[in-house]
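We were asked to recover a plausible sequence for a given structure. The inputs and outputs are reproduced exactly as logged, with field labels preserved.

PROBLEM: sequence recovery
POSITIONS: 232
GIVEN STRUCTURE:
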């Protein structure tokens, strides 16, 4: 494919968004809005609007407590190589073996805002699917081992008993080391976190089974997630 520039009008907003992403890509620990403004030639209102949009689509994560923005793991959904994180390479290097051992399709999910996005799968047609993080084993594994700000954002729409139940589930997942949920029809889904620095969840691998003893299948999945963690 030619690298020549195509004729026609351009979108300044797209170029500006990539300027912001470039700056954040150079600062993995995240930047405050005023720090971003020191590095890009944009009005404050424009930069703030771009950041809100990038957060909405999962390209950027906003840590409200720290007031910082950083590149979101959801960016891996747009790159089959995921060179920045190595997630896809590590996943594909062991997913076939995991699938063979479990006898079920295996998927890789990342947290994008308050949703989970499945960015790779082995054993079923390739597709990217996004759903609320609290509503799946994969999402709950990510929330349990994610940051406090991410948990707070996911819990914000829930109140009373519902919120307390979800908090208790996340605490149990942190102790057990993996998440499990009953499927609507029959069987179970399991998810184990892939950890990054300071033990925070970068991604989660998951598999569903039609059996009646899901915890007996957990060791292999947890072992696969631990192997991915070591490879990153």
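RECOVERED SEQUENCE:
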């Amino acid at each position: 494919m030619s690298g020549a520039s195509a004729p026609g009008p351009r979108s300044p907003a797209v170029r500006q968004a990539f300027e912001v992403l470039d700056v954040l890509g150079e600062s993995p620990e995240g930047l405050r809005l005023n720090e971003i403004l020191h590095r890009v030639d944009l009005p404050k209102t424009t930069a703030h609007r771009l950041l809100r949009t990038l957060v909405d689509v999962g390209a950027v994560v906003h840590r409200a407590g720290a007031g910082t923005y950083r590149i979101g793991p959801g960016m891996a959904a747009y790159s089959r190589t995921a060179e920045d994180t190595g997630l896809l390479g590590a996943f594909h290097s062991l997913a076939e073996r995991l699938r063979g051992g479990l006898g079920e399709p295996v998927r890789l999910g990342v947290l994008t805002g308050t949703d989970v996005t499945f960015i790779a799968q082995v054993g079923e047609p390739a597709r990217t699917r996004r759903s609320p993080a609290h509503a799946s084993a994969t999402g709950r594994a990510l929330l349990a081992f994610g940051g406090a700000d991410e948990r707070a954002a996911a819990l914000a729409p829930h109140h009373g008993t519902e919120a307390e139940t979800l908090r208790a589930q996340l605490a149990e997942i942190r102790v057990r080391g993996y998440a499990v949920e009953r499927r609507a029809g029959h069987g179970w889904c399991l998810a184990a976190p892939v950890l990054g620095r300071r033990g925070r969840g970068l991604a989660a691998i998951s598999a569903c089974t039609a059996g009646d003893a899901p915890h007996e299948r957990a060791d292999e999945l947890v072992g696969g997630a631990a192997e991915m963690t070591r490879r990153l």
